[in-house]
TrEMBL record:
Residues 82-361 form the DUF3730 domain. GO terms for biological process: regulation of post-transcriptional gene silencing. This is Reverse transcriptase zinc-binding domain-containing protein. InterPro entries: ARM-type_fold, FOCAD/RST1_DUF3730, Focadhesin/RST1, RVT-Znf. It comes from the Eukaryota. It comes from Fagus sylvatica.
């Protein structure tokens, strides 16, 4: 150390030029010094460290330059140099941060070039860029610039090698977001957007970088709405870069196939994000718009439909089943219809791929279920799609058995959609009694497979599905609790399995069993009732076509109607459906005979007799305040049931023969009835009072839910009642959810937390439909009072 002490002392003189000269002298001596004094010795390392930790800008600047020169000339080990710079960076003045980060970036680029692109690290923590990122927040802006320089200067060695080097750093930058402050999110946004923009400057070699960015998107956090907004920004950056690169490549006629395959991968990632965020009201709309942009730009550029889009279609199938918001359903239907038309217009035209069991058939039952949507747009889009799907289904039905084949074999099991399609293919083409179908149902339901049953009494998959659904129905009737797997089966699987069974209805040998399984699902899940009724009409129309006529299957399909009537709410709909079919061929003149006095035409029908038996309501039904509001369909269905006094409160359960005390678990001081629970319970009354106070309205709650809904509709005027009309469904849904949590899970919220949950739900619903432009809950609450003020002023 004494050998360098005089030179180190000169670095403290006030003249910057003398300070720089002293640093140059120190490093010159390090190059020529004997081994016990060179850069690898303890005195040499200590001299380098003191220079880098100096408080003088000229000394630090010159020391960094000289250290980089030492490494470049192979006089100093790269790992040691990075360690010295890292140490200096951690304790340096903020003004020196950019200098040290630039030096580390320079050394990383130099070493990568020396290794011909093969430099790697054993763990993520040892990556130099990760170490820099962990030092301090001030490094982030310059670190992004060094990453871009690394890509730009080393892409000649191979963009794939560059991406492999950066992969641990990018993955770490994404994975640390949930565990650090907001600065990590801002850094990730800056990094990904900058890399996406850089790709546009070299489109021919940009595909590996885009693939790296797409793989990083898979690790984005998905725990809340804020994370989803950030994810949307990340995806939008990558989509914009991809579109620009694709336009460039299409204009040159280069790498079109590879670019389209990257587009398919990007679409699958976007749709996978949608499946994770279906619970965030309205959150999927931006993602779906990005997916449409990706598809439309390829069609506009004249590109061909590629078979890999089948995986995209299967992902859309899953999202359509899970989505409950009408505007999302409309977007999904448009995307699917676009893909279907695109497929027809080129070499993968349906006519040219005759007799191929295609994945589009899985959409038949979900699309039928949307024909009953209260939204005219969704209903129209679903009807148009159903016409195209009917043609495809008929083509499958009339195909010779020995000519119908799979395209490309079984799909890989990577998504729920691919599982459904592979199951459909296996059941359609393979032995219907094979074990694969049973094991899938076993997986879906959580039951243990009975080996003796499988070996001695083989049954088709549809028969197993029917028996298991009826088993759950019987278990409910006997008041036995369902297991967690059975509850999941009832809540998550009916529409999914109905889609598979809906295609098997057209199978020559499995059709009858598939109809029975659909009937059993309809008994198990009342929500499937209306879609199943529409499906009966759909299949009845097919089985009466001149080219298909099948009286046996027609009778089998119509035989499902009695099972649907097990739900009392379905009886009027069934009667309305059957009557036109019965009267279609009736004679206009009635001969002498019996006359039914309850009908003006004298013809007996079940509906009139049913109406005479039940007590007529005192008032008309408030259908507008239920079905014309922009609330999720399940909430509207619940309010509709509550208005008919049919929800399973204690008093209604006692009417059905259950012996239990009538006790309101919300207030713990009154009997539980529909009107008490949703209107007059002190807990519900507190929420209603908050609404009236916030809107500035003086209101006396009516005695019944029906009377409230009648008086509520457009209470603030025709153009100011969008949020107001949504309040009853939102509030009653909140009360019902809390009641069920207390009853079945023994978990309760404080009144203040219940109010917060109600306000948040109302805010999400209003934002999803564009009724409010507020960006925060306080602004939203303030806007409610302004609405009523505008009306009454």
């Amino acid at each position: 150390m004494d050998s360098y002490a005089p030179l180190l002392e000169r670095t403290r003189v006030p003249q910057p030029s003398l300070q720089k000269f002293a640093v140059i002298s120190i490093f010159s001596k390090l190059r020529s010094a004997p081994k016990h004094l060179d850069s690898e010795s303890e005195p040499g390392r200590d001299a380098i460290s003191q220079c880098l930790h100096s408080a003088s800008p000229p000394v630090v600047d010159q020391s960094v330059r000289e250290l980089c020169r030492l490494v470049t000339n192979s006089h100093f080990d790269i790992s040691r140099a990075l360690l010295e710079l890292q140490s200096a960076l951690e304790g340096s003045d903020p003004n020196f941060v950019r200098l040290f980060v630039k030096a580390i970036g320079f050394l990383v680029r130099t070493e990568f070039q020396k290794s011909n692109g093969e430099w790697r690290f054993t763990s993520t923590e040892t990556h130099p860029f990760v170490k820099v990122l962990l030092c301090r927040p001030e490094v982030q802006d310059e670190l992004v610039q060094q990453v871009l320089l690394f890509i730009a200067q080393n892409k000649r060695l191979g963009v794939v090698e560059v991406c492999e080097f950066l992969r641990p750093f990018l993955n770490y930058s994404i994975l640390r977001i949930p565990f650090s402050d907001s600065s990590s999110t801002l850094f990730a946004r800056h990094l990904i957007s900058s890399m996406a923009s850089l790709c546009c400057s070299f489109p021919i070699g940009a595909m590996p970088v885009l693939k790296l960015l797409m793989e990083c998107i898979k690790y984005l956090p998905r725990k809340n709405s804020e994370a989803f907004r950030n994810n949307t920004y990340f995806v939008e950056c990558v989509v914009d870069a991809y579109i620009m690169i694709l336009r460039n490549l299409a204009g040159r006629g280069l790498m079109i196939n590879e670019a389209q395959l990257r587009g398919v991968e990007l679409l699958e990632i976007i749709l996978s994000l949608c499946t994770y965020h279906l619970r965030h009201s309205g959150g999927n709309e931006p993602m779906l718009e990005l997916a449409k942009r990706l598809l439309f730009v390829q069609k506009d550029l004249g590109l061909q439909y590629v078979p890999e889009y089948s995986s995209v279609i299967l992902s859309i199938f899953v999202i359509l089943i899970q989505s409950e918001l009408e505007h999302e359903q409309l977007s999904i239907l448009k995307i699917f219809h676009f893909l279907l038309k695109w497929k027809r217009e080129n070499e993968y035209d349906i006519d040219k791929t005759a007799y191929v069991l295609s994945e589009e058939l899985l959409f038949i039952f979900p699309v039928i279920s949307l024909v009953s949507s209260p939204s005219k747009c969704v209903k129209g889009a679903a009807t148009d799609l159903l016409v195209a799907l009917e043609k495809l289904l008929v083509k499958t039905l009339v195909a010779p058995t020995n000519e119908l084949a799979m395209k490309g074999g079984f799909p890989p099991l990577s998504t729920p959609g691919s599982i459904a399609f592979r199951l459909l293919q296996h059941l359609w083409f393979q032995d219907q009694y094979s074990l694969s179908g049973f094991f899938f149902l076993n997986f879906a339901s959580g039951r243990k497979a009975d080996g003796k049953e499988m070996l001695n009494l083989p049954r088709s998959w549809a028969s197993q599905l029917r028996d298991y659904s009826l088993y759950i129905v019987d278990k409910r009737k006997s008041s036995l609790p369902l297991s967690q797997s059975q509850e999941l089966f009832v809540t998550e699987m009916p529409l999914f399995l109905s889609a598979v069974a809906g295609v098997l209805v057209m199978h020559q040998s499995l059709g009858s069993a598939a109809v029975d399984s659909l009937a059993a699902i309809g008994v198990m899940d009342p929500k499937v009732g209306v879609p199943l009724l529409l499906a009966i009409l759909f299949y009845s129309n097919i089985f009466t076509r001149n080219d298909i006529i099948s009286h046996d299957m027609l009778l089998k399909v119509l035989g499902v109607l009695p099972s649907l009537a097990s739900h009392s709410v379905m009886i009027p709909l069934i009667v309305q459906t059957i009557l036109p079919m019965l009267h279609k061929d009736a004679k206009p003149v009635v001969d002498d005979g019996l006359w039914w006095s309850l009908k003006t035409n004298g013809i007996f029908d079940v509906r009139s007799y049913y109406s005479s038996l039940r007590e007529s309501p005192d008032i008309a039904f408030p259908w507008k305040c239920i079905w014309c509001t922009k609330a999720p369909r399940r909430a509207c269905f619940f309010v509709w049931t509550a208005a008919w006094n049919k929800i399973l409160t204690c008093d209604n359960l006692r009417k059905r023969g259950y012996n239990l005390p009538s006790w309101c678990c919300m207030c713990c001081c009154n009997g539980e009835s529909v009107d008490h629970l949703l209107l007059h319970c002190p807990i519900a009354g507190g929420l209603w009072s908050w609404i009236f106070q916030t809107f500035g309205v003086h209101w006396v709650l009516p005695g019944t839910v029906t009377a409230l809904l009648f008086s509520w509709w457009n209470g603030l005027g025709r153009h100011s009642s969008d949020i107001w009309n949504t309040v009853p469904a939102c509030l009653m849904w909140t009360i019902w959810e809390e009641r069920n949590h207390r009853t079945f899970e023994d978990v309760s919220k404080l009144d203040s937390h219940l109010l917060e949950g109600f306000i948040l739900t109302l805010f999400d619903w209003s934002r999803a439909w564009g009724f409010s432009t507020s960006t925060s809950i306080p602004d939203f609450i303030s806007s409610l009072s302004l609405i009523s003020h505008d009306v009454y002023s």
